[in-house]
Specification:
The protein has helices at 24-27, 33-36, 97-103, 107-117, 133-146, 153-172, 177-197, 204-211, 215-226, 230-247, 253-259, 265-276, 280-287, and strands at residues 5-7, 19-23, 40-42, 45-52, 55-59, 62-66, 70-74, 79-82, 89-95, 123-125. The chain is α+β, with helices and mostly antiparallel strands and 291 residues long. A five-stranded mixed beta sheet has the order 1-3-8-5-6, with no helix packed on it.
Length: 291
């Protein structure tokens, strides 16, 4: 049976920290192309930095166009794939949640929240012309990582990585910090609850009650955070959950429908076709891959 392959972080002597940074020239090699140009689910965090070139990267079955200076934040458990581009230059950072907590301590939550904040819009315009100061920071991190016998390697890498994260946050948080922080706190709470309860709870009112705020507040903060209504966010999350089930594992469409709280599988089919444009069966046939 075809399925989306699940990729775990591979620990080696060099990757012992649970962290790796590679140049895209190293990563986009002929031996990697057959795997990375297929959809695969990652069990760690990725950041893709574009230094030269433009193209498209696919995340959860949606194409994300990128240009010079962009970065793309890819949370764990997301399904993504590369579209091969031989002219592309940049860096690809991979790290585990354990790396964050072990080497960044309290700052780990800050990094994880950044991935949540950008979940619906994972692309950030990072490098600004003509200075490209951020590019220098990337090179610095890459060079430190490449020096395998360097003393205090873990501390230097984690410190340089944290500086890079702060630069990303500086680019992302361009609007008033106080308002943005309030928006983020409410939206992050809402997003976390949807992630935990999407199978059984599908109304904005129910989530607002769980958060002890009004439906209007949830809508307002969600729209400010990700430029969509809270209802649309729930719909998108449910569609994504259906897609993941269709592409990973061998559950029947009826079983998926039951687990996601639809009264009948035909209801899920109608819902899915309305927003995706194809039936679950058609989507599964088009998006299953050999492991």
């Amino acid at each position: 049976m075809k399925k989306v392959k699940r990729i775990q972080f591979k620990f080696t002597k060099k990757r012992l920290l649970g962290f790796e940074i590679v140049s895209l020239k190293e990563f986009l090699t002929p031996k990697n192309i057959p795997m990375i140009t297929k959809q695969y689910r990652i069990e760690f965090y990725n950041i893709l930095f574009i230094v030269k070139g433009e193209g498209v990267h696919e995340i959860d079955f949606v194409e994300c166009p990128y240009h010079v200076g962009d970065l793309i934040l890819i949370s764990k458990e997301r399904v993504h794939r590369f579209h091969y581009n031989e002219d592309l230059e940049g860096y690809f950072i991979m790290f585990t949640e354990e790396f964050l907590y072990e080497f960044l301590g309290g700052d780990a939550v800050e990094v994880l929240n950044l991935f949540k904040e950008t979940y619906m819009n994972p692309k950030v315009k990072f490098m600004s012309k003509p200075e490209f100061v951020e590019k220098d920071q990337l090179k610095l991190l890459y060079n430190f990582y490449s020096q395998g016998d360097m003393e205090l390697r873990a501390e230097i890498i984690s410190s340089t990585f944290r500086t890079l994260i702060l630069l990303i946050k500086q680019k992302y948080l361009k609007i008033d910090k106080i308002i943005k922080q309030k928006n983020n706190n409410i939206f992050l709470q809402f997003a976390n609850l949807v992630d935990q309860h999407i199978k059984e709870i599908k109304t904005v009112e129910a989530y607002a009650d769980m958060m002890y705020v009004s439906k209007k507040t949830v809508n307002l903060m969600t729209r400010k955070a990700v430029d969509m209504s809270a209802k649309q966010f729930i719909i998108n999350s449910l569609i994504l959950e259906i897609k993941r089930n269709l592409c990973f594992g061998n559950k029947t469409i009826g079983k998926i429908s039951d687990e996601l709280g639809f009264a009948e599988s035909s209801n899920m089919t109608k819902f899915f076709k309305k927003y995706v444009g194809s039936t679950p069966k058609e989507f599964r046939r088009m998006n299953k891959y050999e492991s």
